[in-house]
Amino acid sequence: MPDFLIGPFANGPHVEPFDVFIRLLSALFFGAVIGGIYKFTRRELHTGLQFPTTLLLLCVLIAMVTQVIGDSVARAFSLVGALSIVRFRTVVRDTQDTAYVIFAVIVGMAVGAKSLWVASIGLGVMALAEGLLLLRAKAITSPEPEYILKVRTGLDCDLDGIVSSAIGSLLSEQELVSMGTGKQGASLDGAYRVRPLAGQTPPNLIKTLQAVEGVLSVQMLRRGFDLD
C-alpha cells in the first residue's frame, strides 16, 4: 500500500481484506436466498423484483455496517445518529413485508458479526416457517381470488339488497366493507369483499350488476392490488 495511504488509516481496526470480502459475499448469498424465499412465497401476488432486490442489498449493507461498528459503542451511536437523517417514505403495505425487512437486517448483522451459524440456522427456520404457512394457506384458501367490489347506485336504492339479489348466488363469500355517499350526496357507494364461485368471472358479475336498474357504476379490484 502506498505510504500516503498508510498514515491516515494506521489507527483503524485491523481487519483482513479477504475476510471482509468473504463476509460480504456470504451476506450477498444470504440476501439472495431471503429474496428468493420472498419471491417464491409471494408468487401468487405477482410481485416484481424491486422488493427482493432491496432485501438482498439491505443484507449486504447491514453486514458492512456491522463490520464498521465492530465493538465500538461510540461508533454504533454515531451511525444511528447519521442514519436517522434518512427518511423512508415508501409505505410497506403488507406486515409480512416488514418482517422480511427485519429478517434481512438481522441476517446481515449476524454475518457481519461473524455469527454465520446464527444466520444459517435462522435462514433455515424462517424458510421452514414460510413453507408451513404457505401449505396451510393453500389448504384453507379457495382457489378463487378475493376482490373488492365497488358499487354506486342512486341515493334512494337499496344497495345491499341489489347486490345480494343480483349476484349473491354467484358468490361464495360476501362481506360489506364500507358504505357512504358520493357525487356530493347524490349517490350511494358501497364496497364489498367478495369471492366468486368457481367459473364466475369479474366481467360476468359486473355485467349482471350493471344491468340492474338504479346501478350507476360497478368496479372490481383484485384484493392486494387495490389502488387506494
Structure description:
It comes from Paludibaculum fermentans. This is DUF4956 domain-containing protein. Keywords: Membrane, Transmembrane, Transmembrane helix. InterPro entries: DUF4956. The protein has about 230 residues and is α+β, with helices and mostly antiparallel strands. It folds into two domains: about 15-140, no CATH class; about 145-220, Alpha-Beta Plaits (2-Layer Sandwich), CATH 3.30.70. A hairpin with a 4-residue loop joins strand 2 and strand 3. It is elongated, with a radius of gyration of 26 Å. The model has no long low-confidence stretch (mean pLDDT about 80). It has helices spanning about 5, 15-40, 50-70, 75-85, 95-110, 115-140, 160-165, 200-210, and strands at about 145-155, 170-180, 185-195, 215-220. About 55% of the residues lie in helices and about 15% in strands. Strands 2-3-1-4 form a four-stranded antiparallel sheet, covered by helices on one side. The protein is built from eight helices and four strands.
Radius of gyration: 26 Å
Separation of the first and last Cα atoms: 57 Å
Number of helices: 8
Indicate the mean pLDDT.
Answer: 81
Instruction: Determine the structural class based on helices, strands and strand pairing.
Output: alpha+beta
Write down how many β-strands occur, each being a DSSP E stretch of 2 or more residues: 4
Low-confidence stretches: none
Portion of residues in beta strands equals: 15-25%
General shape: elongated
Strand order of the largest sheet: 2-3-1-4
Taken in chain order, the helices and strands follow as: HHHHHHEHEEHE
Number of domains: 2
